[in-house]
Amino acid sequence: MKITVFGATGGTGLEVVRQAAAAGHEVTAVVRDPARLAPVPGVAVVRADVMDPASIAPSLVGADAVVSALGNRDIRHATTVCSGGVASIIEAMEGANVRRLAVVSASGLVTDGADDFLTRYVAKPILQRILAYNFADLRRMEEIVRESGLDWTIVRPSRLLDRPRGNYRVEIGRNLPRGYNTRRADVADYILRSLDDGAAVGEAVAVAI
User: Fold this and answer.
1) What pLDDT score was predicted for residue 14?
2) DSSP letter for each residue of 97-115
3) SS3 (DSSP) at 116
4) CATH homologous superfamily for 2-208?
5) pTM listed for this prediction
6) Which InterPro entries does this one have (predicted)?
7) How far is CA 44 from CA 18, 40, 74, 184, in A?
8) pLDDT at 76 over 90
9) Where are the alpha helices (H) located in 49-177, listed in sequence order?
10) pLDDT over 90 (residue 74)
11) Is residue 12 very low, low, confident or very high in pLDDT (cuts 50, 70, 90)?
């Protein structure tokens, strides 16, 4: 499969790139600054501005799927990194006739019956206040993805850990009970599996240990 990855210099995006390349996929990593991307054998690195559809369009030619692992570390200011970036990616995908899209969001956005009392009424409300700007951006990103008409999957990990891949759980359409942590390597593994999984199309999927 030919996969184009955005946000490849981040922890989760880099895991997607590494695992996809190791699995034999043809991978293109689109980055603003190639110097920030650790070398991965066999991966084509393209310098482009994700906010400019014309800039990223060439990287999508012939792609079978697109992965967005865009993120923002600044929690103090309003941002459109994820929503604006995904809007641009979708515009470029439509121009290149590419339909499969997977994006990384966060389970902290959503509170539902799968959450225990402390998570639902204490932990997540606090987290949603602390990350209010970033979560607003992610919510808007999810709205844009849902309205795109593409074959999309929204992947919602919980607190991300930099640990080797292991056993993990997934739940379509709701949170995972006691899904407090998620390894980045597991997120990447699920994303790559989901690209060929029709059951994941048009769904938000929680991933956690």
Assistant:
1) 97
2) T--EEEEE--GGG---TTS
3) coil
4) NAD(P)-binding Rossmann-like Domain (3.40.50.720)
5) 0.95
6) NAD(P)-bd_dom, NAD(P)-bd_dom_sf, Polyketide_Oxido-like
7) 12, 9, 28, 22
8) no
9) 53-56, 81-96, 117-118, 124-130, 132-146
10) no
11) very high
